[in-house]
Specification:
about 100 residues, alpha/beta, Rossmann fold, 3-stranded parallel sheet, globular
Length: about 100
């Protein structure tokens, strides 16, 4: 399998349950299997107003709770450095 070049995965509705239970833990597993490029990042987008750091803490907890096979703490910390978050108001044109 060919590993793609640098990519950004944008997740709309990122503060929701699907992101915590499935998306982030599964993307982390791809990282563990070395199937993601070095220049890979995740941008979470949602209406909930939280900071990058708060979002990273939530995603770290989600990986530990819903991920597979007792992930390595250092690998999780490295992975969450590439996660970013932005809050948008879907009814405000200027947010797009």
């Amino acid at each position: 399998m060919t590993i793609p070049e640098n990519h950004i995965l944008v997740i709309f509705g990122a503060s929701g349950d699907l992101t915590k239970r499935k998306l982030i833990p599964d993307v982390f597993n791809l990282k563990r299997q070395k199937l993601l490029p070095d220049g890979f990042a995740i941008l979470g987008v949602s209406r909930t107003e939280i900071s990058d750091e708060e979002f990273r803490k939530e995603m770290k907890s989600a990986i530990k709770e819903f991920g597979n096979n007792n992930p390595d703490e250092n690998m999780i910390d490295d992975f969450i450095k590439s996660i970013y978050y932005i809050s948008i108001n879907t009814k405000a044109v200027e947010d797009f």
